[in-house]
Amino acid sequence: MMNEPATLTSAFLLGIFSTMHCIGMCGGIIGALSLSLPVEVRNHKPRLFVFVMSYNIGRLASYTLAGLIAGAVGTGLMQAAGFDQGHALLRIVGISMMVAIGLYLTGWLPQLASIEKIGIPVWKRLEPIGRKLVPVSSIPRALSYGLIWGWLPCGLVYFVLIWALTAGDALMGAMTMLAFGLGTLPTLVTAGFMTSWITRLAQSSRARQVVGLLIVAMAIGSLFIPMEHHHHH
């Protein structure tokens, strides 16, 4: 249905670019997480790495699950609507989502941030559970904390989820979210180690605008990637 390599690559790149924005928001959370680790873990880099990784594996698991659900729902909706031109429509939605993400990152359209309100009811339920897991003293706790953190209201994740809705099937939806999640890993894992430098970069509005425009350019570029053609006889 989708141009899979292109989609997954875009999702991955999106993850890499968008973490600039995330660090601004989630950098504090990572800092708090690192601080909530026992001192002996904090001072032992290899162990700290294992904790930060477990925490991120939990987060990716919840993204993948969300993508799986989104992909399935999207396909269901399309079949229910009996769209024959479904894939063309979905592609437009997917590309619009990328443009939205890019503009969201530039901060030029503050209205786009209101998408974050969607997740607040869910988050209100999950956040107290997350608090109970602090201090994160064991690997299972780190994994669980990550699973919960994956549902943190983040406009970016929602845009990528809407994009996963257009993936064409549950598996592709899951893979789109996973690719996005993997793209967020490099920044978010290193952030556990060198928060201040990255936070400074992420808070620079110039950097965010450049990244935002790059994503808009990627979206427009993908309009010109030929789709696999479906011939119905």
Structural features, described:
The protein has helices spanning 4-35, 39-42, 45-81, 86-106, 120-132, 139-149, 155-165, 170-191, 195-203, 205-223. It has 233 residues and is an all-alpha fold. The longest helix has 37 residues, at 45-81.
Please report which band the strand proportion falls in: under 5%, 5-15%, 15-25%, 25-35%, 35-45% or over 45%.
Answer: under 5%
Q: Helix- and strand-based class?
A: mainly alpha
Residue windows where pLDDT falls under 50 for at least 5 positions? 229-233
Large-scale geometry: globular
Rg value: 18 Å
Q: Helix and strand string, N-terminal first?
A: HHHHHHHHHH
Biggest sheet overview: none
Round the mean pLDDT to the nearest integer and report it: 78
Number of DSSP helical runs: 10
Count all strands and give the number.
0
Helix content: over 70%
Distance between the termini: 17 Å
Q: How many domains is the backbone divided into? A: 1
